[in-house]
């Protein structure tokens, strides 16, 4: 069986769809699974166990100059790559006009079908053309976690029961990235390793105050941790430099590509971060992780019932003490002999090794 997944963006949404790939592999071990995604996120999918082909597109950039010669040439190349295979199932996990277009362009095998969303779920976008393109539209519970959403669509489309355990299948590689970010150069005062601060987010109202980050970093340093500071743009770099200047044992990472950044996070003892794509990568890597929310939306995008991962919500923003206590709990759980595996999305059950 040949299956094409269409999930173009954003980074967090792409991460939340990863468990669906592992579900499909359990149900159809011989399946060939391809994925269409925005090219900037393709390096992350190269780390996903079991994907056959990652097809990058640049719809965001192409829409800025749709009639230019460069755009037309790039579109033709993308279309040729997309249509290289014929698929038994094309599954649109995004439910937008742009993803419906990609689904419609993909070629089907004889008897193949296109699957998509029949309805909007709470907190997620949905556009009617996505349903029109689908041969089979899957109806979902309106109130569901983002991970459960993708898993449910694939399970109903391909006719299998959801497995009891969940895996993201995200595989990090320990290579030269480790040296580049000085992971090995931990001071003797920091025997517990690195904790990465994912301090950047696309929305200003999701930010945590700089003073809070500094206070948390000081507590971590006093407990034997060093602080790693990734950044993805100039504003985040300025914040990282300000944090590093206020802390004794902190390193600002170089600006890394998404695959290198995934590998670097995997080398850390844990991550404290905002509701952002990098925080969701930390979840997928099964790291000790605290996710900070200024809005009560963790039920939809936050970590799912793992003792070594949790979210902290308060308005206008969580206190340093609340985040610190959460870190103490998840880091202790991460060191426990019996690690907690992910429960089924939306469940409160726990599974241990």
Protein topology:
Blueprint: E1 2-6, H1 11-27, E2 32-38, H2 42-45, E3 53-57, H3 59-62, H4 69-82, E4 86-92, H5 97-105, E5 107-117, H6 128-133, E6 136-138, H7 146-158, H8 176-180, E7 194-198, H9 210-222, E8 226-229, H10 234-246, E9 250-252, H11 258-266, E10 270-274, H12 277-284, E11 288-293, H13 298-301, E12 309-313, H14 320-335, E13 340-341, E14 351-352
Parallel strand pairs: 1-2, 1-4, 2-3, 4-5, 5-6, 7-8, 7-10, 8-9, 10-11, 11-12
Antiparallel strand pairs: 13-14
Helix pairs in contact: 1-7, 1-12, 9-14
The largest sheet is:
6 strands, parallel
Tell me what portion of residues adopts beta-strand conformation.
Answer: 15-25%
For the record, what CATH class of the largest domain applies?
Answer: Alpha Beta
- Give the number of domains: 2
Structural category: alpha/beta
Q: Which architecture of the largest domain would the CATH scheme give at its second level?
A: 3-Layer(aba) Sandwich
Task: Please report the total strand number as a whole number.
Answer: 14
Overall mean confidence score, pLDDT = 91
Spell the H/E element sequence. EHEHEHHEHEHEHHEHEHEHEHEHEHEE
* CA-based gyration radius: 21 Å
Strand order of the largest sheet: 3-2-1-4-5-6
CATH topology of the largest domain: Rossmann fold
Low-confidence segments, ≥5 residues, pLDDT <50?
340-353
The CATH superfamily of the largest domain bears the name Glycogen Phosphorylase B
* Helical run tally: 14
Distance between the termini: 32 Å
Shape: globular
Percentage of helical residues? 25-40%
């Amino acid at each position: 069986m040949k299956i094409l997944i269409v999930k173009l963006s954003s980074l967090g949404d792409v991460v939340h769809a990863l468990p669906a790939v592992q579900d499909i592999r359990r149900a159809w071990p011989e399946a060939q699974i391809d994925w269409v995604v925005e090219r900037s996120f393709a390096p992350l999918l190269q780390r996903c166990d079991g994907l056959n082909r990652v097809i990058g597109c640049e719809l965001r950039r192409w829409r800025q100059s749709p009639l230019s010669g460069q755009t037309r040439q790039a579109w033709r190349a993308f279309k040729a790559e997309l249509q290289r295979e014929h698929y038994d199932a094309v599954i649109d996990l995004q439910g937008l006009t742009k993803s419906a277009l990609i689904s419609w362009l993909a070629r089907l095998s004889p008897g193949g079908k296109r699957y998509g969303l029949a309805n909007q779920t709470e907190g997620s976008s949905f556009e009617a053309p996505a349903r029109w393109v689908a041969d089979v539209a899957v109806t979902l519970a309106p109130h569901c976690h983002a991970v459960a959403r993708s898993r449910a669509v694939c399970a109903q489309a391909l006719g299998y029961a959801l497995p009891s355990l969940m895996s993201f299948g995200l595989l990090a590689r320990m290579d030269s990235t480790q040296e580049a970010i000085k992971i090995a150069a931990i001071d003797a005062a920091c025997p517990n390793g690195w904790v990465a601060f994912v301090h950047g987010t696309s929305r200003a109202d999701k930010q945590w105050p700089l003073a809070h980050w500094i206070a948390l970093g000081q507590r971590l340093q006093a407990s034997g941790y060093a602080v790693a500071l990734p950044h993805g743009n100039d504003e985040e770099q300025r914040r990282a430099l300000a944090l590093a200047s206020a802390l004794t044992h902190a390193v600002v990472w170089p600006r890394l590509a998404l695959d290198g950044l995934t590998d670097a996070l995997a080398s850390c003892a844990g991550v404290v971060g905002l509701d952002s794509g990098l925080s969701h990568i930390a979840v997928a890597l099964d790291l000790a992780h605290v996710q900070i929310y200024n809005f009560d939306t963790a039920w939809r995008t936050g970590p799912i019932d793992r003792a070594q991962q949790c979210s902290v919500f308060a308005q206008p923003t969580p206190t340093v003490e609340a985040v610190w206590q959460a870190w103490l709990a998840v880091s202790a759980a991460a060191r426990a002999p019996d690690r907690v595996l992910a429960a089924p999305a939306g469940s409160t059950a726990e599974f241990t090794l």
